[in-house]
Specification:
This is HTH cro/C1-type domain-containing protein. By secondary structure, the chain is an all-alpha fold. It has 21 helices and no strands. It folds into 2 domains: 61 residues, Orthogonal Bundle (434 Repressor (Amino-terminal Domain)); 223 residues, Serine Threonine Protein Phosphatase 5, Tetratricopeptide repeat (Alpha Horseshoe), CATH 1.25.40.10. It is elongated.
Length: 395
């Protein structure tokens, strides 16, 4: 029965209760034709209130009508434990032949792509081995340039599965490697996931300080860049994108501390860098800046302005330039914004859009499942969200 459409399940439960379509219609205060169309799937049950009325009339829980896929989401515990074990290996056995750096770079790029597409279970399985492989490579600047983003990816993935303190540890390890290089740009790369881990753990002041210091060091580094050389120009463009990313992290940290005017000023400072290009394969640019503007306005309590900016962002072509993970994570923040102000119908639609953008961002994240459960409990939530809550067992 769990594989049947909702209308067919209604029909089977009606028969179990020994009711004709007319008797069932009378109990609901509907016509026999209305019941027939529901059971044949001609009329879709879009309103949660209708689903609950039907469930009450059939004397069953509404989740019984909606549980299309009753399986629990795949647990992340095993993957988290493998990462924890990898981080606890302070002495990694060296290989007879050092790993090929080109292959490690390819593996790192594959891991980055997995993150951009929110493939968190795959990342939890991949990252421990990648970390060990990079750690046994021949020491040097090239290895450090790989090790820093590996630690960063580990931190970002752990945040997704509600492992904030462990994410902070991984980000801190990456920062230690980065600082040893004395390269402001490598340190900036390490600072981005560090700021996210600190913010996730509620340490907004520390995140703000780390982002501002790293951004300031990039400015000083840029001033000494050699003009006219392609390599220097590329490096400068990357530094400006990194600086913009750090400014957005600082803005979010300040907004969380309710210093909204400072947050808006920091976003304004990121605008210039946003036209340069993208950091991390599309993670920074004009769309990223506008997304943070929406969240800052929401933090200020100005929901009308935030909503207008949000709708304008989604209508623009640059919205699609952001990776699926970035878009879905932002949509979860917007859904949280709507839910906090009681706009549960808008929150529900936004959650469904986030799931359609990057499924794992909703299905694999405990915080997202909690939000689904909260919104699905509202009578104004879309019926599709109630079905999603049943699928996730988020009740």
């Amino acid at each position: 029965m769990n594989e049947l459409p909702v209308g067919r399940r209604v029909a089977q439960w009606r028969v179990r209760r020994n009711m004709t379509q007319q008797q069932f219609a009378d109990r609901l205060g509907k016509s026999k034709s209305w019941v027939d169309k529901v059971e044949r799937g001609v009329r879709r049950l879009e309103r949660v209130s209708n689903l609950r009325e039907i469930a009450d009339a059939l004397r069953i829980d509404v989740q019984v009508l909606l549980a299309e896929r009753p399986a629990h989401p795949a647990p992340a515990d095993a993957g988290v434990e493998r990462i924890r074990a990898a981080l606890a290996r302070y002495h990694v056995e060296g290989a007879p032949r050092p790993p090929d750096l080109a292959q490690l770079r390819a593996s790192l790029e594959h891991a980055k792509q997995s993150y951009r597409h929110a493939r968190y279970p795959a990342l939890l399985a991949l990252l421990p081995g990648l970390l060990d492989a990079v750690r046994v490579a021949r020491p040097g600047r090239a290895t450090d340039a790989l090790l820093v983003p590996v630690y960063g990816l580990i931190a970002l993935t752990l945040i997704k599965v509600d492992q904030g303190e462990l994410a902070w540890l991984a980000a801190d390890r990456g920062m230690a490697v980065a600082l040893a290089t004395e390269d402001p740009q490598v340190s900036a790369v390490a600072t981005v996931p560090l700021c996210q881990a600190l913010r996730y753990c509620g340490r907004n002041g520390a995140a703000l300080r780390a982002a501002v210091v790293a951004a300031h060091r990039l400015v000083r580094s840029d001033s000494g860049a050699v003009a006219g050389l392609d390599r220097a120009a590329t490096r400068e463009a990357g530094a400006r994108s990194l600086r913009g990313t750090l400014l957005l992290q600082a803005a979010l940290a300040v907004a969380d501390r309710t210093d909204h005017d400072s947050a808006r000023k920091l976003v304004d400072q990121a605008v210039e860098a946003a036209e340069v290009g993208s950091y991390g394969g599309g993670g920074f640019g004009p769309a990223a800046v506008q997304a943070v503007r929406v969240l800052v306005e929401a933090a200020r309590g100005d929901l009308p302005t935030a909503t207008v900016r949000h709708e304008r962002l989604l209508a623009g072509e640059r919205w699609r330039w952001l990776p699926p993970e970035h878009r879905a994570a932002y949509l979860l923040d917007v859904a949280r914004m709507y839910a906090a102000t009681g706009e549960m119908a808008c929150a529900g639609r936004t959650l469904l859009e986030a799931e359609g953008t990057a499924r794992s961002e909703v299905h694999e994240r405990p915080a997202a499942r909690d939000l689904v459960a909260l919104v699905a409990g509202s009578t104004t939530a879309p019926a599709a969200l109630t079905r999603l809550a049943a699928t996730l067992r988020a009740t």
